[in-house]
Amino acid sequence: AQRVTQPEKLLSVFKGAPVELKCNYSYSGSPELFWYVQYSRQRLQLLLRHISRESIKGFTADLNKGETSFHLKKPFAQEEDSAMYYCALSNTGGFKTIFGAGTRLFVKA
Amino acid sequence: SQTIHQWPATLVQPVGSPLSLECTVEGTSNPNLYWYRQAAGRGLQLLFYSVGIGQISSEVPQNLSASRPQDRQFILSSKKLLLSDSGFYLCAWSRTGVDSPLHFGNGTRLTVT
Question: Which among A14, A97, B92, B109 could disulfide-bond with B34, CB atoms 3.0 to 4.6 Å apart, if both were Cys?
Answer without folding.
Answer: B92
